[in-house]
């Protein structure tokens, strides 16, 4: 399972990039994902180059959390594709193995 959060206005392009890199494949289906909206919160320090907000200020932004099933062999490609298109300087993401039932 691969999970990331992205500003809502960028969710479709990030979702497509991850799907094109091999995320979200399930049997005869591709581009499968689950998303929900929430509020992301961060404060950029003086060394940051924030895409949103200002250095030293707490920023709240509407984000989508996007979850994909993915094969372990594809994870490096998925991370590279996500980082290439994601608007954040340091996008947060998680990967954890899921056993098929």
Would you kindly provide a brief summary of this structure?
This protein is of the alpha+beta class. Helix content is 21%, strand content 30%.
Mean pLDDT: 95
Low-confidence stretches: none
Widest β-sheet, arrangement of strands: 2-3-1-4
Largest beta-sheet details: 4 strands, antiparallel
The H/E string reads EHEEHE
Question: Proportion of β residues?
Answer: 25-35%
CATH structural class of the domain at 2-35 and 65-95: Alpha Beta
List the helices and strands and how they pair.
Elements: E1 2-7, H1 11-20, E2 34-43, E3 58-68, H2 75-85, E4 93-95
Antiparallel strand pairs: 1-3, 1-4, 2-3
Give an overview of the whole structure:
The chain is of the alpha+beta class and 101 residues long. The protein has a domain at 2-35 and 65-95: Alpha-Beta Plaits, CATH 3.30.70. Helices cover 21% and strands 30% of the residues. Strands 2-3-1-4 form a 4-stranded antiparallel sheet, covered by helices on one side. Helix 1 runs antiparallel to helix 2.
Observed structural traits:
single chain; elongated; alpha+beta; 101 residues; four-stranded antiparallel β-sheet; 2 helices; Alpha-Beta Plaits; 30% strand
